[in-house]
Amino acid sequence: MRSSSFFSYGPGTRPARGPAKKTAQGVTDFLRANDKMAALLPAITRMAALQQDCSAILPAMFDACSVIQFEAGQLVLSTPNAALAAKLKQQLPKLQEALLQRGWQVNAIRIKVQVRKLVEKAKPVKQLKLPPQAVSALASLTEALDDSPRNQALKDALSAMVNRHRRAR
C-alpha cells in the first residue's frame, strides 16, 4: 500500500519546503524513508555499480546499453538495436573476463534488444534580431503602402513583425 505522504499530495497538503530537487541524495533519502522501498536500495546500488563497470570496460559501445538484471551469475544487458547487439556479442568474452577480475561473479551474459522510443529534442526556432533602423524602415513601409485589399495582408504581416521586434527590445 502506498503511503500518501510520499507519493501524492492533496490540495494544501504539499510540504512547506521549496520545490523538490531531483538529486541522488534526495532519491536515496526517499528510498530509506519507506520500508518496502528501502529493500530496493542495495539492489539499485549494485546495479548502478555494475553499469559503471561495464561502461568502463566497453566505453564506446556501452553508452547506449544498460544492465537490466543480474541474478545467480546471469547478467542480462539491453541494447537499443540488433546491430549493436551483434557488436556487443563479439565483446562478451572480454566483458565477462574484465568483470570477473573486478570481483563480479558473472557466469553468463545474455543480450536483449529493447527498442526505445527516441525523444528528439525540439530545436529552438532561430529568431532574427533586426536593428532599430530596419524596424523603423518596415514601419514606414507599412504606412507608405496603399490601403487596398491586395496590400492588406502584407500590411498586417509587416505590422505584426514590427510589433514583435519592438516588444523584444
Automatic annotation (TrEMBL):
InterPro entries: DciA-like. Residues 1-23 are annotated as: Disordered. Pfam families: DciA. This is DUF721 domain-containing protein. The lineage of its organism: Bacteria, Pseudomonadati, Pseudomonadota, Betaproteobacteria, Burkholderiales.
